[in-house]
Each structure stands twice: as C-alpha cells, then as structure tokens.
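Hi there,

I know you've been waiting on this one. I reran it after we fixed the sequence typo, so this is the corrected version. Both the input and the resulting structure follow.
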Amino acid sequence: MPRIGPMEIVIILVIVLLIFGVGKLPQVGKSIGEGIRNFRKASGGEDEKDAAKAVEATKPAETATEAPQMTAEEQAEFKKWRESQEVKTSK
C-alpha cells in the first residue's frame, strides 16, 4: 500500500482549495469535524442519553444568586431610603 507523503497532501489541499474556494474552507472543516465526531460516537456505542448526562455532569452547578446579608444598620438605612422614595413617588 503506497504511503501518502507531504507532496501528496499538498496536492490534495490545492485541489480542495480549487473546488471549494477560500470562503467555504471553514465550513468544510467544521462539517468534516462534526462527521468524525458523530462517527466516533456511533462506533463507540455512546448513546445520546449518555452524552447528555456527561455534558450535564461537567457543567458547574448553578446556584441561586442571593443578596449578601445586610447588617441591622444597613437595613435601617435602606428602610429610610425606601420610605423617602415612596414619599417622592406619591406626590
């Protein structure tokens, strides 16, 4: 079986460039990459459910963003500010 050397690879790349053009090369590369990825998943027996579980397992746990606890003094100041805002809007 003949081996593919660097000269043959260059010739293949030039032919691909002539066929698809410079603008389409990123799309072609993306399509080939997705095809290889799908082939590996199918040949490895990886199920879509297993893949979804793996993705969710790698995501960081989302926590509810809570406001920091205010001291009693800050709460009193906030209450005064809110009351002053309510007075302004009621006029």
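Quick highlight: The two ends are 91 Å apart (CA to CA).

Best,
R. S.
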